[in-house]
């Protein structure tokens, strides 16, 4: 950390810092569940810097104590305009609990990685406290938790359907997705003296109104009514049917306004903004961030999430993969918003001038590393599209999947005099690099693969095939596993060409909807045959606003309303997960018994054959030792005595 920086380089988080700036009152106060890191990867910093850039006085209250007399919430007094509330960069329930609902002992977004500095359901807890202390001050909620809980959703940790977070929190307005564009409009209207209560025609916001109140008209929007919260509680099929509408409208260029009745009120979800233009996303990343945690945390230890991205560059937002278990497109959208080369290189300069930079950029990527600058060839076709994925079940013929812009920016970063290596730490979409799947013919796939392997892999490359069963992969919206075989061949050939040994590390998920125990056994056998001992494995965690979560709760696919098997009990989940670790002695008996019940002796041999032969060898060896010991003459003399 640069000791020479004045404290006023950061947004104020204490009353002394506010006074140091000569301010008597703040216009906006942001409450965050994360520690304050002034970096473009941390939402509260982005929002704070945007508000500051428009001339407003803004302060942040990071990780306020919600258990005591609420003095943290009161330290700045009431803001002139509004409170902004976010639970942080992660949904607090995912932050706090494992897939088996065990409490986590660490928090990557807190100093020293220490847990316990934010509540469960933080957005609701913080907002209720603010509404109790300052009932007349508007509260705007945003961030990942609010965004993914904007309509009726299934909560895995309570195991029940929950209404929009607006209902329980009592917030005045919800901003969903990436918040820059609606925030700019909110600030513009505030400049004109428009009260927040009248800001109901802004895209990408959600609010509650009385069922009896007249709905504001907007000549550019059509409306779609989904089943009420109460109907969803009584009928799982209605909840599943709702999701298809919600997902499609979230990913359309010209979306409809969503209306839902809930507890005597009408929930209104306005359509999203179009993807950010290059100059808009550049403006967000080019704000005067210090790129460091607030000095207050110096004695409390480093913040793990910051250490991970400290020397990284995010080149774009959005993901057109549409994986059924992933929330990226639900929050960031499926259309890619890419930064300019100029903005990226400006950030590279900032990173390389950091005092402790040693020449290595840890990641130059995005949500999916190799989607930079990719978009529709003919925009009018994209304007009519309702598909949640641009690459499943096939790569859209209108999608420009050229990797040339990526390779170009990689080479530019490589040429920077202070950069020794720039690694790609984000996950790549391996299927976009397989010729049989992505029929791109501009030669950029091989060029990109060569550049990636020779210059940008940090020891090993992580990719996410997720499963080997084609039926499960179809539900996941992922390509057939045969394409992963092709990618592995291509990757290994590129390594051989450059005389490198950089292992491939595949990620897999167990207990995903559609996956059965036999599918996991086949996965274990096939990956073992490919030479993998799986490390990066996880149990499926149902999170709000995903297809897979809807299937998990309802047992129905929201697009077909047909039944889908899902492992739900603890025993069923453990039975699937154990196949990842076929090589561990403690799992062998269980795996053998499971495979015998399935009547799959072929898999017993494939998975445990080596182990069985080793055990037999050890038994023969032990017997041989015993026999030699018993025939020793000294042994018989001792017996005689």
Explain the layout of strands and helices:
Elements: H1 15-20, E1 28-32, E2 37-38, H2 43-53, E3 58-62, H3 71-74, E4 82-86, H4 92-96, H5 122-133, E5 139-142, H6 144-148, E6 153-155, E7 160-162, H7 165-169, E8 173-175, H8 180-191, E9 205-210, E10 223-225, H9 229-234, H10 236-250, E11 257-262, E12 265-269, H11 278-285, E13 292-293, H12 304-309, E14 312-314, E15 316-317, H13 328-332, E16 337-338, H14 341-352, E17 360-361, E18 363-365, H15 379-384, H16 404-414, E19 421-422, H17 444-455, E20 461-466, H18 470-476, H19 482-497, E21 504-510, H20 517-529, E22 537-539, H21 547-554, H22 570-577, H23 585-597, H24 601-630, H25 633-640
Parallel strand pairs: 1-3, 1-4, 4-5, 5-8, 10-11, 14-18, 17-19, 20-21, 21-22
Antiparallel strand pairs: 2-13, 6-7, 8-9, 9-12, 11-12, 15-16
Helix pairs in contact: 2-8, 10-21, 16-17, 17-19, 20-22, 23-24
What does this structure look like?
With 641 residues, the protein is an alpha/beta fold. It folds into 4 domains: 7-208 and 265-269, 3-Layer(aba) Sandwich (Rossmann fold); 311-457, Transcription Regulator spoIIAA (2-Layer Sandwich); 459-581, Transcription Regulator spoIIAA (2-Layer Sandwich), CATH 3.30.750; 614-640. Helix content is 38%, strand content 13%. The protein contains 25 helices and 22 strands. Helix 2 (43-53) packs parallel to helix 8 (180-191), helix 10 (236-250) runs antiparallel to helix 21 and helix 23 packs across helix 24. 44% of the residues are buried. Mean pLDDT is 93; it is low at 635-641.
């Amino acid at each position: 950390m640069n000791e020479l920086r004045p404290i006023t380089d950061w947004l104020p988080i204490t009353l002394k810092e506010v006074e140091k700036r000569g301010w008597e009152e703040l216009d906006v106060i942001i409450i965050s569940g994360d520690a304050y890191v002034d970096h473009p990867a941390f939402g509260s910093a982005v929002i704070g810097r945007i508000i500051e850039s428009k001339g407003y006085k803004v302060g942040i209250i990071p990780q306020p104590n919600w258990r005591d007399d609420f003095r943290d919430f009161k330290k700045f007094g009431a803001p002139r305009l509004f409170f902004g509330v976010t639970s942080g960069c992660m949904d607090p329930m995912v932050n706090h609990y494992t897939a088996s609902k065990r409490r986590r002992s660490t928090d990557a977004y807190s100093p020293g990685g220490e847990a316990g500095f934010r509540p469960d359901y933080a957005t609701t807890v913080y907002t209720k406290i603010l509404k109790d202390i300052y009932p007349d001050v508007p509260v705007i909620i945003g961030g990942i938790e609010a965004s993914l809980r904007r309509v009726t959703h299934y909560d895995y940790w309570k195991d029940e359907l929950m209404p929009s977070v607006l209902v329980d929190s009592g917030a005045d307005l919800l901003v969903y997705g990436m918040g820059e564009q609606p925030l700019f409009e909110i600030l513009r209207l505030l400049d004109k003296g428009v009260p927040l209560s009248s800001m109901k025609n802004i895209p990408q916001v959600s609010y509650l109104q009385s069922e009896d109140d007249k709905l504001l008209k907007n000549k550019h929007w059509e409306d779609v009514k989904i089943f009420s919260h109460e109907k969803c509680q009584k009928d799982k099929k209605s909840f599943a049917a709702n999701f298809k509408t919600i997902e499609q409208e979230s990913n359309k260029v010209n979306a409809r306004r969503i209306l839902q009745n809930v507890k005597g009120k009408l929930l209104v979800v306005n359509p999203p903004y179009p993807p950010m233009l290059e100059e808009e996303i550049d403006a967000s990343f080019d704000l005067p961030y210090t790129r460091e945690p607030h000095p207050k945390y110096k004695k409390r230890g480093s913040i793990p999430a910051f250490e991970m991205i400290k020397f990284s560059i995010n080149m774009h937002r959005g993901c057109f993969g549409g994986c059924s278990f992933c929330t990226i497109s639900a929050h960031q959208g499926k259309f890619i918003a890419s930064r300019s080369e100029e903005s990226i290189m400006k950030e590279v300069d900032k990173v390389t001038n950091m005092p402790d930079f040693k020449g290595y950029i840890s990641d130059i990527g995005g949500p999916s590393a190799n989607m930079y600058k990719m978009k529709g060839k003919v925009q009018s076709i994209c304007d009519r599209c309702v598909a949640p994925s641009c690459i499943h079940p096939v790569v859209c013929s209108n999608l420009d999947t050229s990797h040339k812009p990526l390779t170009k920016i990689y080479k530019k970063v490589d040429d920077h005099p202070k950069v020794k290596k720039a690694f790609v730490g984000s996950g790549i979409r391996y299927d976009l690099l397989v010729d049989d799947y992505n029929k791109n013919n501009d030669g950029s796939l091989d060029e990109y693969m060569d550049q990636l392997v020779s210059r940008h892999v940090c020891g090993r490359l992580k990719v996410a095939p997720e499963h080997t069963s084609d039926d499960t992969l179809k539900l996941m919206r992922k390509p057939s596993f045969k394409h992963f075989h092709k990618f592995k061949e291509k990757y290994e050939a590129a390594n051989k060409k450059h005389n490198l040994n950089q292992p491939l590390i595949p990620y897999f998920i167990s207990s995903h909807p559609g996956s059965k125990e036999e599918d996991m056994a086949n996965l274990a056998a096939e990956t073992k045959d490919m030479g993998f001992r799986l490390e990066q494995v996880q149990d499926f965690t149902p999170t709000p606003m995903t297809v897979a979560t809807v299937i998990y709760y309802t047992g129905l696919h929201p697009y077909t309303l047909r039944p889908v098997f899902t492992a739900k009990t603890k025993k069923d989940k453990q039975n699937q997960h154990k196949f990842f670790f076929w090589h561990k002695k403690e799992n062998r008996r269980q795996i053998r018994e499971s495979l015998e019940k399935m009547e799959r002796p072929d898999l017993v041999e494939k998975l445990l054959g080596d182990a069985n032969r080793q055990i037999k060898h050890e038994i023969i060896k032990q017997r041989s030792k015993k026999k030699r010991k018993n025939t020793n003459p000294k042994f018989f003399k001792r017996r005689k005595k």
